Structures are given as structure tokens and as C-alpha cells.
Amino acid sequence: MIAGLVLRDVHSDDLPILFEHQRDPVAIRMAGYRPRSLEAFREHWEKILRDPSVIKLAVIWNEEVAGNMVVFDVGENRAVGYWLGNTYWGKGIATSALAELLQRVLERPLFAYVAAHNVGSQRVLEKCGFVSLGGVDTPEGFDPLVGEELLMRLD
Ligand SMILES: CC(C)(COP(=O)(O)OP(=O)(O)OC[C@H]1O[C@@H](n2cnc3c(N)ncnc32)[C@H](O)[C@@H]1OP(=O)(O)O)[C@@H](O)C(=O)NCCC(=O)NCCS
Q1: For 87-138, how does the pLDDT look when each residue is reduced to its tens digit (9 = 90+)?
Q2: Which of 8, 41, 42, 108 could form a disulfide with 36 if both were Cys (CB 3.0 to 4.6 A apart)?
Q3: Mapping DSSP to helix (H, G, I), strand (E, B) and coil, where does residue 46 land?
Q4: Hey, CA dihedral for 38, 25, 33, 101, is it positive or negative?
Q5: pLDDT confidence band for 47 (50 / 70 / 90)
Q6: Which are the contacts of 117, defined by CB distance < 8 A and separation ≥ 6?
Q7: By C-alpha distance, which of 64, 68, 100, 66 is closest to 82?
Q8: Contact 1, 66 (CB under 8 A)
Q9: CB of 29 closer than 6 angstroms to any ligand 1 atom
Q10: Model pTM score
Q11: Residues 6+ apart with CB under 8 A from 66
Q12: Ligand 1 pocket test target in 60, 72, 117, 123 with most atoms within 8 Å of CB
């Protein structure tokens, strides 16, 4: 992992900062998903924190909560997702954190659903060995803003 980077479990104390990350308008356009209100975000994450099937890791960079990475069920598939605060972008953090997650989580195949316009996220996934399977319908439970969804897979 790059210097200063640590992955640890998400705690409920992390939720206010993760909420700030997910309501950034640039990140919202990039990811292509509708943001949740504070109440809906808390409810969603409290459920995730209680759910043993979801792997949830806080991305810590220089002792700050820079974002989160999750592995969760989407229908029959196990999928990865991640989100960093915008001040942490462009430093190789997502690639390094995802590579570390893939060493800890040995389930395969793993999938990722990514907006077709989100070239940054696609690049992170490609650098970690995921390949695109092309466009898919938006999975149930996702709340898209716009556009086409790509499915990417790692064996
Ligand atoms: C997408 C995201 C995770 C990228 O994080 P990051 O730490 O900046 O990514 P990295 O620094 O590891 O970059 C990896 C590669 O992607 C490229 N990249 C990252 N963001 C990019 C962007 N916006 N446009 C084009 N390329 C981009 C980098 O140049 C790098 O490629 P290179 O090594 O060939 O130069 C981050 O921008 C983010 O959290 N966005 C909002 C939420 C989101 O989109 N989540 C993913 C949903 S599927």
C-alpha cells in the first residue's frame, strides 16, 4: 500500500464524514447516483453496519477518514464499491486501497457496477485486474441519476 494508507473497519463515528463525501456534487455526477439525505444515509449505513454479509472498510490516509470501500451482494453477484472525499483524489489512493482489499477478500468472481462515463473508476478497476463485460441494466436497489451502467468482473 502507498505510504500513509490504512484500511480498517467502518465505525458509526465515521458516518458524518462519509455523509459529507457522498453529498459532494462532483462526486455525485461522477458516480451517477442520487445522494441520500442525512437521515436516509444514516439508516442505510446503520443497516450495513449490522449486516455481516457486507464487508465495509474505512480508507484512512494520513490518519484521516478519506473514504470507504464495501463488498456487498447485488442479486447473485458479490460487488465492490468505493467512494473517496474529493480532497483525496488523484493520489493513487483508490487503486492502492482496492488492491489491498483484493488481497484480504479472496471471493471470486467479484463484480463492479460503474457508470459508463466514470472513466476514473473504470481505470481504478482495470488497474486492479477487472475487465468490462459491457453495458447492463441498472441493478435493483441502485438509484441512478443518468446514463448507462457497465458491469466489470475480476476472476
Ligand atoms: C473514482 C475515484 C474512486 C478515484 O479515486 P482516486 O484515488 O482519485 O483514483 P487513483 O488516484 O487511484 O487513480 C487511478 C487511475 O484512474 C485515473 N483517474 C482517476 N480519476 C480520474 C478522472 N476523474 N478522470 C480520468 N481518470 C481518472 C488516474 O489518472 C489513474 O490512472 P493512471 O494510473 O493511468 O494515471 C474517486 O474519484 C471517487 O471516489 N469518486 C466519487 C465516487 C465514485 O465515483 N465511486 C465509484 C463508483 S463505481
Answers
A1: 999 999 999 999 999 999 999 999 999 999 999 999 999 999 999 999 988 8
A2: 41
A3: helix
A4: negative
A5: very high
A6: 30, 32, 147
A7: 68
A8: no
A9: no
A10: 0.96
A11: 59, 60, 84, 85, 88, 93
A12: 123
CATH code linked to domain 5-154: 3.40.630.30
Closest Cα to atom 5, ligand 1: which residue? 94
Q: Which residue has the higher pLDDT, 32 or 128?
A: 128
Pairing of strands 77-84, 131-136: unpaired
Q: Is residue 144 pLDDT above 80, yes or no? A: no
- The DSSP output letter for 86 is G
Q: How far apart, in whole angstroms, are the C-alpha atoms of residue 149 and residue 51?
A: 26
CB of 84 shorter than 6 A to ligand 1: yes
Q: What distance in angstroms lies between residue 95's CA and the mean position of ligand 1's atoms?
A: 8
> C-alpha grid cell for residue 62?
494520513
Using an 8 Å Cβ cutoff, are 61 and 88 in contact? yes
Q: Which of 69, 73, 58, 138 is nearest to 111 (CA)?
A: 73
Ligand 1: centre distance to CA 123 (Å): 7
